[in-house]
Amino acid sequence: MEKHILQSLLSKHEVGAVFFDEPMSKHTTWKVGGPADVFVVPTKIEHIQRLMNICTDHALPWHVIGRGSNLLVRDGGIRGVVIKLADNFSQISLENDFCVRAESGRSYVSCANFSMRNGLSGLEFATGIPGTVGGAVMMNAGAHGSETKDVLLHAEIVEADGTISRLSNADLHFEYRYSILKDHPRIVVSATFQLKQGDTEKMLETVRGWTKRRQTTQPLQLPSCGSVFRNPEHTHAGFLIEQSGLKGKKIGGAQISELHGNFIVNLGNARASDILQLIELAQTTILEKYGISLIPEVRIVGEDV
User: Fold this and answer.
1) Which pLDDT score, from 0 to 100, does residue 2 have?
2) Which parts of the sequence belong to the FAD-binding PCMH-type domain (predicted)?
């Protein structure tokens, strides 16, 4: 669809703030990525419903992003509509004594901190996951032996036709770094977590220990997406990459971290193509040396230049 036609179409409906040719490098933690044709920042569920109706009626491709912490956008950018749910969609509340409801744009770390401050245990693992609640539900994010599926009660979803539905934990068919939303894209607008009573100070002490370890083992000062690959069964992707001698390998402005083999960092002037080449190098090397296929945990979208 021509840009001026799309602009006219969106101007007839209240959908939030709309931007054209928005650089995705401004919206990903890797700080790379070409422009999105249309970039929308809704503030109400009704905005999202209208966007879904427009995209469905006009066969427009659409993508949802949160804080861009698990996202690689190719240098050619994204065709269609990008919907951002972050600070614009981040309300949080106690639903009862042991439930927390958070909108999908809420930082998962912030959601965990809110829970701990209210004496609720179960989300401590999320303090090391830099994405949003919606992204965590979609990919069953986890750390420290716990996963989103362990605490999620249900999620509120906007379907492709704009209707709202509620999916239970069982409905989402969670597996390791997977939910049914990966195969049947819909938009998570909120999630409710079933937690249990905990001791705030003890929880904070545990989290401080994890934070200290991350600070010494992960390249937190440089732009990255966190872990690039899923951990294969019975081993760790970072260990395999390090054993293969790839630690510190550079292509263009990107580098496999010298601190952690499962991190690829932007040294300051990386392009998405540099990062993709390092991803492919790691995959090829590990397959040849160990017969193990590394599966990206990061979501790769968009087009090449």
Assistant:
1) 62
2) 31-198
Give yes or no: 177 in active site.
yes
d(CA 302, CA 218) in angstroms, rounded, equals 27
**Distance from C-alpha of 276 to C-alpha of 162, rounded to nearest angstrom:** 34
Identify the pLDDT of residue 6.
74
Looking only at the bridges linking them, the beta strands covering 250-251 and 196-197 are unpaired
Question: What is the reported pTM?
Answer: 0.93
Where does residue 155 rank: exposed (0-12), middle (13-18), buried (19+ CB within 10 A)?
buried
Catalytic residue among 103, 124, 147, 297: 297
Q: What is the distance of C-alpha 143 from the center of its chain?
A: 14
| Phi and psi based region of residue 291 (left: phi greater than 0; alpha: psi -120 to 50; beta: remaining) | left
**pLDDT band at residue 9, thresholds of 50, 70 and 90?**
confident
Contacts of 208 (CB under 8 A, 6+ apart): none
- Give the separation between CA 244 and CA 225, rounded to whole angstroms: 21
Residue 250 confidence (pLDDT) above 80: yes
Catalytic residue among 74, 101, 177, 186: 177
Centre a 10 Å sphere on the Cβ of residue 232 and count the other Cβ atoms it contains. 16
Judge whether 227 counts as a catalytic residue.
Answer: yes
Structural domains in the chain, CATH included, are 3-87 (3.30.43.10), 90-202 (3.30.465.10), 219-301 (3.90.78.10)
Phi (first) and psi of residue 300, to 5 degrees: -110, 120
The catalytic residue among 121, 227, 244, 257 is: 227
Query: Could you confirm whether 242 is annotated as catalytic?
Result: no
Residue 135 CA: distances (Å) to CA of 116, 131, 177: 21, 6, 11
The three-class DSSP label of residue 105 is: coil
What is the Cα–Cα distance from 66 to 267, expressed in whole angstroms? Answer: 23
